[in-house]
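Checked the freezer inventory, then went back to the computational side. Two predictions to log before the end of the day. The first one is the construct we discussed on Monday; recording sequence and tokens without edits.
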Amino acid sequence: MTLAQIRRGMTVAAIAAATILASCGPSAAELEAQRLAAEAEARARIPPPVTLNEGVAQAASVYVSFIRDVSTISGGFQSPEAIQAAMRRGADYDPATLSRGMIAYASIIALQSPEFVAGVRSFSTDPVSRRQVVENLIADPAYAATLPGADYAAGLISTTLGQDITSLTAIADSVENDAYTIQERQDPRRRWAILPIANREVRLEEAKTISASGMLPSAEDSARLFAAANSGTGLGLAAARRGPPYTPAVINALAIAALAAMGAAGDEARANTEALTFESNSQFCLDMSKLNLFQCLAASRPSYEDMFCVGRHIVRDLASCAASSTIPATIITNTAPTAIEGGTPIAINTGSLEQSPVSPN
């Protein structure tokens, strides 16, 4: 056999072997299916964008716009009509709606924390982990407090709402102090401030009617808060941290923000976010505040007493309810001294006392 014949034989054999191997490998359709499956798996590992539905932003806008309006109240009223105007402005809230709005606003504040958003989203690249985190949050909102960065988000909430609390407290001091100042003989306003209020029953019923009216969201504030929630920017907040324990209202706000960070708080999840904006302690505080306002108005006779009702049971109670909803009860530990008898230390009774938040009464 010549060399040429040998080469031809080897070529034919190589071709045959290649043909056999090709017939054993995946087909073009199979390769395409494998490619599509790989792409689907890769897409599944891309976390969804931060998503918070517009309903939460609308609820938050109610709180933001109302607190801004109440913050325009101040002492120094120059007429009975000015006192009644402040009364109408401050009484114009529904406790349930305002409570939900505060928690909704707190959740948007939490989404301004890059540490919290990044910490939550660290679980979102794996579909199984993402689903488990979402399920845990829905089953138990307190799970949100254990997620990375929760202390940063809670710090933003307490600091931001704390500014409102401080402002409202200062206004309450101003109005309540003026209720005493206006009674002094040298105050020219005293001549009308000590006179009996005309149509006392009418103004009480008017306050009750105003309280029962619905609170509508602000379109401008809703749009601003919606954009801030989904972008994580826009509110201009400085970083802050606050460790646990957290109040139920803060926990619910963290849970809403965590769901949003996982892309699980869009329109399809409104039932979950609306449920989380309800918190019984926060709403009860505002319910009691409104009841105290009505009782105060029922007992009030002259205008200076109405001034006190405005300061105490509108402005101060709003500050107190916001504080009790966002600041946990203080734990006071009493460490007793040690008595020495005959040179031998004797431990005197020790204990701890948990102090409840101040009530609005």
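The second is the one RB wanted added to the comparison set:
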Amino acid sequence: MRVLFAGLGSAGHIYPLVPLAIACRDAGHEVHFAAGEAVHPALDAHGLRPFRPADAFYEIYAEDLAPELDRLRPDLVVHGWGVPGAAAAAYRAGIPGLWHGFGRLFPDGIGLRIPTRVDEAPGRPHLDICPPSLQDKDFLATADRIVLRPQMYAQPAPAFARPPGTLAYLTLGTAFGTAELLATAVQGLTRLGLTVVVAAGRVPPQELGSMPAGVTVQAWVDQATVLPHADVVVHHGGSGTTLGALASGVPQLLLPQGADQHANADAVTACGAGLRLAPGEVTAAAVTDEVLTLLSGRGGHRDAARVLAEEIARMPSPTEVAGRLPDFV
């Protein structure tokens, strides 16, 4: 079977699709991946045949993908939530397709079209990587869902050597983080004497200046290797980090800045697995207080996170779901 994956050209949208793409490759299917060139190295590393359709660098429109569908004639198209144009192109070409989510169904008004309301490709099932207890209730009640375990994508990298002490992982993602906000969070964490690993993301590490002892700053951190060792995660509320922390059973402090991050923070705090600080509430002292609460166990946040981790572990794996994909052709 020939399977074409398509997604927005960013790590946050492509990496959730990679585990299923790898599982399809391992099952003997021929896999191709339509995406902007920024994510090609990660896809190339796993033999997923990435290509840039037409002039697409981030978004993919129906007219970008239509010639590639004629060229490849895939048996199935798996299209990310962020590329409704890919869904429309596959539908018009008469090729079966599946939506692939990146987390909880996102709210209106964040710059993406909600896939349940896209009329160019009606009736297509959703590969849903969000644990049901965290998912939008209307989506659970109305969507045709194929449950798929979220699996953190790991870039080929040396094994993570866990530093001594209580470990905090800090990231603000690749879209909204600032040096000032990262520095404030670092200050709040080091007041507790924590060992801190920082993924600087869009902030050049040199903008943070010299860091206190016990703080390591990297431009990019492989979350799949760090999160299982973390005692607490402080982050922006992006879907990948949120689900990765939950899958590892780690309590989290969310500092949402925009997009779907506020909705993710609402969901995590509602289930008891974390705390949040709104943009106007973030001070070093507030970070210290909230992280101390998470680490103390007083609020039961770690227990709630472990319950979510067990729920995620019971979801069908990418290998299991890849075995079902021929049924949709």
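For RB: The longest strand covers residues 2-6. DSSP finds 13 helices and 13 strands in the chain. Let me know if you want it refolded.
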